[in-house]
Amino acid sequence: MSLLVEAITSLLLIAGGVFVFIGSLGMAHLRDFYMRLHGPTKATTLGIGCMLIASMLYFWSVDGKPDIQEMLITLFLFITAPVSAHLLAKTGLHMQLRHTDTTGGKPFELRDEEVGDKPVPHPDKGHG
Amino acid sequence: MIAPRSWLPTPVLSILLLIVWLLLARSYAFGQFVLGGALAILIPLLTYRFWDSKPRIKKPFKLLRYVLRVLGDIVTANFEVAYLIANPWRTLKPHFIEYPLMLEERFTITLLASTISLTPGTVSANLRLDGKSLLIHALNVDDEEALIEQIRERYERPLKEIYEC
Predict the structure, then answer these.
(1) What's the pLDDT tens digit per position in A29-72?
(2) Which pLDDT does position A128 carry in this prediction?
(3) CB contact under 8 A, A86 and B125
(4) Taking 80 as the threshold, does the pLDDT of residue B50 lie above it?
(5) Boundaries of every domain in chain B
(6) What is the ipTM of this complex?
(7) N or C end: fewer C-beta atoms under 10 angstroms in chain A?
């Protein structure tokens, strides 16, 4: 394995580790639920991306043939991360979790009174 | 819902399943093709009721450009969020934002919401029941209008051009 590949791989690994660490740090010390949600969904996507590219590079140079299996992990991550973040946020709104006072905007989900609206019509069944 | 009659209700999904199977198996032997192909036909047949009919992609090149732009945004905005979190002297101004949706199809709204969640600094928190606005939580906002405008121009308009016209 040449020095250049080794250097790039280790740089990517370090960068990935730093991003994932900052993401977890955000989860640990941001002040409310909605802010903490940002850490794991975001900083980790790039962090894990860096590590996967490093892994691809490493095994390419060791085995001598490119392998894109790691791309699958990225694909699954990009599909699942936003969905789980959305569900968590939705649950937080449903439970009316508190947020910091500096938060701007007051969505009606977090107000006390009941507010409802018609559901989205199903494309096949309409409002039925 | 997709018409149930055909034996191959979602051809793109089938191809994708076959590719994923082959990549996971890490082998391109004939047997893997047979097994993967059988799964690629069976799984859509069992799950087609679950899928919305997917709007047709009208401008594939714009879709490619959109994907590249989102990837680029993920990288640059990750640095911003990392800086926001790691900088101890920061004062974050989190904000709930009502984003009025221009898109109408459920599939494209899903794409937009996922994009918003993936690009750092914003999480899509709730799609309103009437499907007309999206609640976004942003980590640090100086100008609410500017953020809405940015999402509108960078993500929503391209998506509308690609899928809905």
Answers:
(1) 777 888 888 877 776 778 888 898 899 888 888 887 777 788 88
(2) 47
(3) yes
(4) no
(5) 11-50, 60-164
(6) 0.78
(7) C
Contacts of A35 in chain B (CB under 8 A): 92, 94, 137, 139
Cα dihedral A7, A8, A14, A15 sign: positive
Transcribe B91-109 into DSSP letters: ----EEEEEE----SHHHH
Its pTM stands at 0.78
CA distance A85 to B80: 19
Q: CA-CA distances (angstroms) from residue B84 to A33, A40, B11, B89, B120?
A: 17, 14, 44, 9, 11
Please write down the long-range contacts of A51-59, taking CB distance under 8 Å and 24 or more positions apart: A51/A12, A51/A13, A51/A16, A51/A17, A51/A20, A53/A12, A54/A8, A54/A9, A54/A10, A54/A12, A54/A13, A54/A16, A57/A5, A57/A8, A57/A9, A57/A12, A58/A1, A58/A5, A58/A9
B18 near A CB under 8 A: no
Tell whether the model's pLDDT for residue A10 goes beyond 90.
Answer: yes
Q: Which residues of A touch B20 (CB under 8 A)?
A: 72, 75
3-class DSSP assignment, residue B134: strand
Residue with token string 């791309």:
A71
